[in-house]
Design brief:
Organism: Blastococcus deserti
EC number: 3.1.21.10
Main location: cytoplasm
Radius of gyration: 17 Å
Order of helices and strands: EEEHEHEHHH
Family: Belongs to the RuvC family.
Number of helices: 5
Catalytic activity: Endonucleolytic cleavage at a junction such as a reciprocal single-stranded crossover between two homologous DNA duplexes (Holliday junction)
Length: 189
């Protein structure tokens, strides 16, 4: 499974792509950061971010996009920008017909380090070790995006099976596949 991890941010949006599956060592495919200048108007920053994520989706063709769920932050301005960046990434994934998985920071930290309260240095160190990287991914946003991708590669399939079982009414019940209508754009008049 190929996973595109997104650590959302308006100034720095980390991204990382891994190939992996539960119980196996994942492989890093690509990592980086999308930066948008603070002096640009908000809508232009969001457009730049959307364009970059769309390009990543085309280039890497992930099976799923894992995005950090915006929880709470002390700085409301930062939280708003982070939520906007997460929404733009989810929109780009939907337009590319790719499923989106949301993971909390503590879930990602627990998956990558065994400690849901690990600090950024611990997460970066474990990402480097787990992926067998020769260099530490920098900045921390890039390492966090790789951690998101690894978390989903390891935990996503089991979570999906549990979700399917819950939707079907429990273990052993038939799973009813629902097809949601796809957005086709705004019709011209």
């Amino acid at each position: 499974m190929r996973v595109l991890g997104i650590d959302p941010g308006l100034t720095r949006c980390g991204w990382g792509v891994v190939d992996g599956r539960p119980g196996a060592r994942p492989t890093a495919v690509g990592v980086g950061v999308v930066r948008t200048p603070a002096e640009l108007d908000l809508e232009l920053r969001l457009l730049e971010l959307h364009t970059a994520v769309t390009a990543l989706l085309r280039e890497h063709r992930p099976d799923v996009v894992a995005i950090e769920r915006v929880f709470t932050q002390n700085n409301k301005g930062t939280a708003t920008g982070t939520a906007q960046a997460a929404g733009v990434a989810a929109l780009a994934a939907a337009q590319a017909d790719r499923p989106v998985a949301w993971h909390t920071p503590s879930e990602v930290k627990a998956a990558i380090s065994g400690n849901g309260r690990a600090d950024k240095e611990q997460v970066t160190l474990m990402v480097t070790r787990v992926l067998g990287l020769s260099e530490v991914p920098r900045p921390a946003d890039a390492a966090d995006a790789l951690a998101l991708a690894v978390c989903h590669a390891w935990r996503g399939p089991a979570q999906q099976r549990l979700r399917s079982a819950a939707l079907a009414g429990g273990i052993g019940a038939p799973v009813v596949q629902r097809t949601l209508p796809r957005w086709t754009g705004v019709a011209a008049r």
